[in-house]
Fold this protein.
Amino acid sequence: MQDIVKTFPGVRANDHVTFEVRAGEVHALLGENGAGKTTLMNTLYGLYQPDSGAIYLGGKRVRIRSPRDAIAHGIGMVHQHFKLVYPHTVAENVALGLSGAPFIGPARVVERRLRELAARYNLPVDPKAKVWQLSAGEQQRVEILKALYRGADILILDEPTSVLTPQETQELFKVLERMKEEGHAVIFISHKLDEVMEVADRVTVMRRGKVVGTKAISEVDKPTLARMMVGREVVFRLSKGVCQPGEEALIVEDLHASSDRGLPALRGVSFHVCRGEILGIAGVAGNGQRELVEVLTGLRRPRRGRVVILGRELTGQSPRKIADCGVAHIPEERIRMGIVAGMSVEDNLILKKHHRQPFSRGPLLNLREIRRFAKQSIEEYEIMTPSPKTPAKLLSGGNIQKLILARELSGQPGLVIAAHPTYGLDVGATELIRKLLLRQREAGVGVLLVSEDLEEIMALSDRIAVMFRGEIMGIVPAAEASLEELGLMMAGERRAKEAA
Ligand SMILES: Nc1ncnc2c1ncn2[C@@H]1O[C@H](COP(=O)(O)OP(=O)(O)O)[C@@H](O)[C@H]1O
Ligand SMILES: [Mg+2]
């Protein structure tokens, strides 16, 4: 790909990007969320037309007008969100959309070739299984098989490990090795440094729509890559004092709740979080974590069970009531739920608090106090904003998150509920936010940390609970937790001995 430019209204997602991948290599495309990785690969796959630039395959210039063109050129893509048809079988999904009739040849031919491919690449799936019956990891295998079936020489995988347990990730990496041996070119999109170091031969780092550089893995290390990703020095180690648990900040008993689709999302969840302790909730997304946080913060009504926060029974209370009782909420969808996008940074900082001292005096707002508080928060939380009056929506993701923390933590909460607090943030903002959470713990606040990032969970938590299909598979003291054990629980295995 040579000098590719792709602009969306207001953003240049790819800014003169040149990217080259060879047969027989795993080439990682690394960058923070929003760096432009998916856009570049959607262009290669024919989903977008570049504003300018050219694509060459085997030295020859090609025009890729659609995914159909891409497939014809031997390019396959496994998207971040799978595009399978649920009621159909694996074999039907693989055959679907192939040129000609909806199903080429008799099902048995498709099945036979599928079995061959599955064996050759070590991608076990049952061709006759219905897709809805499969786990996320198995669905991903189907997507890979589908691409191989169509003759992909170049395979693009967009953040493939985000839906996998650690064990499934290891299996995927073996498959990638195998594809490499067979002479395929594999493009592995990721924002995770460890995975890139483990699986890639070469890496191209993108930042803000531009390529920062392409390197052989042998000539880089994690800190170098992190620096390339964010453009500054970063520290990986967090210092953490001994946990001194106080009384219970949160008690959850036998909680049941339904998902938006009316299906059971929480099925008898029980745990507690002490003051001065961080309890991490690990698990592959979609196993009830979202519903749990919603119930605890008053956004969803439980069907059964009890929630006691800071000594008060608050089951089924409103978000405002819960917040007023000393609960800080760092929401998963920070732009939709965490801020009022059109309001200024200053107004967002006092949101939910404007009715309280010292910001109001009777019916009037105390503007001087508000301004002082905003200025202090902006400094203390390193919020990069042109001015306190700037609309919050103009800030970067990391700065929006810092704003939310500044507001939520300034109320001196007794319990912090943080959902994916560093998801998609650059390394600098991630580091600051983790430090802030640890500081809360040190100050005797109870912290419930929900995250998909196991590294984060292990670095911050004192105890780790793993959720699977709406249940807690086990709770482990972080000091004893191994990646392997957590991975097994993430895949639905219950912990043998239940820790306190
Ligand atoms: N279809 C689209 N319309 C408008 N903006 C988009 C679209 N797709 C991506 N963007 C923007 O382009 C930038 C790069 O996004 P993306 O390629 O998805 O990054 P990455 O995959 O590295 O996280 C982001 O600022 C994103 O908001
Ligand atoms: Mg992406």
